[in-house]
Write a structure and sequence with these properties.
The protein is mainly α. Helix content is 59%, strand content 0%. It contains twelve helices and no strands. The protein has helices at residues 6-17, 28-37, 43-55, 61-65, 69-76, 82-99, 113-121, 128-138, 148-158, 166-176, 181-200, 221-227. The longest helix is centred in the last third of the chain and has 20 residues, at 181-200. The chain is globular, with a radius of gyration of 18 Å. The two termini are 14 Å apart. The chain binds a DNA duplex (13 and 12 nucleotides) through residues 34-36, 38-46, 48-49, 77-85, 88, 124-130, 133, 145, 147-150, 188-189, 191-192, 195, 208-210.
DNA sequence: GACCAGGCACATC
DNA sequence: GATGTGCATGGT
């Protein structure tokens, strides 16, 4: 990855697309809920679910814990997997109420990234991507998020092994970049932005469903120029 | 109708 | 450790 120069990729993407201002959400809790609900799910469906939670006065860990499953299920139904996600949401509520204070700060181990990552990963329903998203976007801790877009783009365009482990790829970025939450934040969002841009321009990766006619490189010359 | 979307847990080998 | 499966809605 030394030769990949993550920071240069970041600079090129930032120059191309500008700040993405992630994560969409009005509060750390809403961000965390979004991270959970978006598991294998289109973000537009998640927006509907969150809107339902808001209008149902359910966007709060205590209120969720006091509600019937059926109420939560109906609210988050648009985001799919609504039964398993209802249970996962409850698990996240328990964790949140035990560890996060009213000012959205951890009540112990301040800034201990490893501690809180392990803590989140112990919650059933929170895997690595969800944990890193919550750490980064709810708590502004420098935990790099790897998602399918990141994995695909890195494998297709920057030569990382397609089956590279989550933690392995994550550590490559963590070691190669300044440990700045703002950069991690924008970088992940820019990867998603790039992936969607490539799809829009029909320059998707070979396994992308939206790829139709393209025989050309899946990254347009402008990107190659930027990354050269 | 098929296919996928900002995953995860669990079973099985 | 690798591979397969269930979970479920809504857009293209």
């Amino acid at each position: 990855m030394r030769q990949l120069q993550a920071k240069r990729i970041y600079d090129a993407l930032f120059a191309k697309f500008g700040p993405q201002k992630w994560w969409p959400g009005d509060s750390p809790w809403e961000v965390a809920v979004g991270a959970l609900l978006t598991q294998n799910t289109n973000w537009r469906n998640v927006e509907k679910a969150i809107a339902n939670l808001k209008s149902g006065e359910l966007l709060d860990p205590k209120l969720i814990m006091d509600s019937e499953n059926s109420l939560i299920e109906e609210a988050i139904r648009p985001s799919g997997y609504f039964r398993v996600k209802t249970q996962r949401l409850r698990n996240l509520c328990v964790w949140w109420l035990a560890n996060v204070d009213s000012k959205n700060r951890f009540n112990t181990h301040p800034d201990d990234l490893q501690y809180w990552r392990d803590s989140l990963l112990s919650v059933k329903g929170i895997g690595k991507e969800s944990a890193d998203s919550i750490l980064l976007y709810s708590f502004n801790l420098p935990s790099f998020v790897i998602d399918t877009y990141t994995k695909r783009i890195m494998a297709r365009h920057f030569g990382t092994p397609p089956m590279m482990k989550y933690d392995e790829l994550r550590l490559i970025f963590m070691k190669d970049l300044p440990r700045d939450p703002l950069i991690f934040n924008e970088f992940h969002a820019l990867f998603v932005r790039l992936a969607k841009e490539l799809c829009r321009k029909n320059e998707c990766l070979p396994d992308c469903p939206l790829r139709k006619l393209s025989k050309s490189p899946h990254l347009s010359p402008v990107y190659y120029t930027h990354f050269a």
